[in-house]
Every structure is written in C-alpha cells, then in structure tokens.
Amino acid sequence: MRSIRPLLVATGLVAALALTATACGPSEDKTADKPAAESAGGNGTGGGISADLAETLKKHGVDPEKWKNGEWKNWDKDKWLREAKDFVNPVIDGLWKPERMKSAKDPARTMAASDFSGDQGVTDPEPAPVKAEPENLPYHEHAAPVGKVFFDSPEGSMVCSGTVVKDPKNPGRSNLVWTAGHCVHAGSKGGWYRNIVFVPAYNDKGKSAAALENARPEEIAPYGAFWADWATTSGEWIADGGPTGGEGAPYDYSVLHVKPESGTKSLEETVGNALPVNFDAPEISQISAMGAWGYPAAAPYDGLIMHKCIDRPGRLSISPSTPTMYRIGCTMTGGSSGGGWFSEGSGGKLALVSNTSIGPATGGWLAGPHLGRGAQEIFTMMSDKFAGR
Predict the structure, then answer these.
(1) Distance between CA 24 and CA 26 in Å, rounded?
(2) Position 341 confidence tier, pLDDT thresholds 50, 70, 90
(3) Of 128, 315, 320, 359, which has the most beta carbons under 10 Å away?
C-alpha cells in the first residue's frame, strides 16, 4: 500500500502548485523604477543604505558605504552579525549575475547514517529511497511558487531552495518566502549570511549548463530577483544549529520578506501563486503523502533542474529533548535545502507543512521540521512587521 496511496494523492499535490487562473506566466513590471529605500526593515533598495541599516552596521564598527562597496566580504567574527535584530542585506546592484548564480554551491547539511539511532522511541524505520523526478516544463506553469535562494557565506556563494507563501496581512500581495534556517544563518558558530536573494522559477525551461551559456536573462530568472529586506529564524537554530544540523535541526526554518530588485509588484502578484502554511498538521501517521520540491545541487545533480519527491512520511528523532521531524524517502541532495514540503489538509487544499533540512551523506531520504507554535510565532511576527506594505 505504501507505493499506491502516495501516488493517488500526488496528482493533487502537483496540480495545486501550478499557477492560479489569474496569472499567465512571467511578465515584467514596467510600471515603475526601483522603489525608494525604506527606513523600516533590514535593508535599503537600489543600492541605498537605510538609516536603520546604517545604525546597525555602525554599532558593529562597520562603515555603511564600505559594506555596500565590498566590506560584506569580510567574515571577521567581530563583524559577522549574529543576533536576530542584526540582520542586514542591502541590495548590491548587479551582484547576482547569471554566471554567479550558476556557480553557487549547496550548503549541504548531511550526517552519516550511523549518526541516527533507528531504535529511538519516535524514530520509524529508514524509508526506501524515492527517486526524485524532474518538474514539468516550464516551471512557471507547474510549480510557480518554487525557486532558488542565493546567498554569500564565508565559503563563497551558496544556494538553497524556497517557496512563496501567503501573507495573511497582505492577501494576494505576499512578499514572504519560506526556506530553511541554515540558508540564512550559520547557527551556533556564526551569524547571518549576506546578499540573500530569491529567484522564483529559476531556469524556467530546464536548460542544461551548456544551453544556459547563451540563455537570455529572462530564461534564467523569468520573474527577476527578489532581495530579502528582512529575515527571521528560530532562536533554537541560532543557538544550536550546526554544520550537520545538530539539535537545531528540528527548528531549521526561516521566513524571508523580499522586495523586487526592480519594479513594484509583490512577489505573489508576480508569480501568480502562493501557498498557505499549515502550523497544525495532523499526526504523521495520519498523513498519507508529502511532496518535497527543490533544486538539488550536490552530485549527481547540478542545481539547474527543479525536482520533486512524493512519499508517505515517517518520524525521525534527533534528540529526546527536541520535536520529532518528518522524514521521507527522496534522492534529492544538498541545494534542495529549504525547499517546501506540501501536504493536503482539510478540504483537499494544499499547504506547506515543512521544509528540507537534513539528509544522510549517502542520500536516499530527507528530513524536515514539524512546524508548530515556534514556527508560527516567527511567521506571524514577519507578517505583522510588514502589514499593509
């Protein structure tokens, strides 16, 4: 039965990710130039530095203009902003060129299979691998809310996956993106990553690396790039997260608020769809199927093609003191981190219920956090912060 029921549900999972009837594909917003910098939030736009951002940088001994002009490359621990209130991400015009996007690496959070105890009380047997399937083309017609998250770390340019989610305080005009905590913050040994950008429907037509050499910008980023002007993650991830997830893994989630690199339309209006987030998913045993979407970048994948896996979820316990995580069979690798996990809720409506966090070094399965009260609190905080904007 394991291989039958998920396939029955899969049709609904896939269909609900497609564009809504109000959108017909990528389009360019030509109604305005880049928006002016705003004082609220963690960021200015158009290369500007907001007053709030300048004050935060100065508190850490960083000259705002030097930051914009290259100081962000300095990963001195004394200048690596760490606290939740210290997130900064000023737009640097032209930084994320197509070739830089293609060279970004995955920040894989992998652990050897022996690091997990299969006999813990809330850990189910390891699932059989489910081969990841490429998403149908073009992506904007089949998985419009899914995209790639690009950022800079001390190790260089990195990449994750993310999902456009609905904002209850800005219905129909959401600028919120759900991803993993480790895609925005290094955890216990570091601080916030930099130059965080979301590109929905990246490589829309699924072109190979060779074909992308001569691709038009709109084929690589059909909706353009959206810079994060604020990010939030759990305090548990900041305190306990690590290179292999650690005890922060069950809290490895993040919400970004973004704004377009150019134009004024919201992210949801631009892509034509957004998914609700379900913070009250039923017990794992009651969920017949979950689907995970993302852009795997570690071998044997190259990060250019969107993939998906659908499987019946099981349970994975990292520690007796932390919440049990979801686990599904899936061959996606690093780079798919942060990609949304979706499940049908009441009335058959699709909702985001988790995100890819960790997997074994050998591949074969993925695990994601259960989104409970803590996740809902940071989501609500972000929605309230940008209410009506």
Answers:
(1) 7
(2) very high
(3) 359
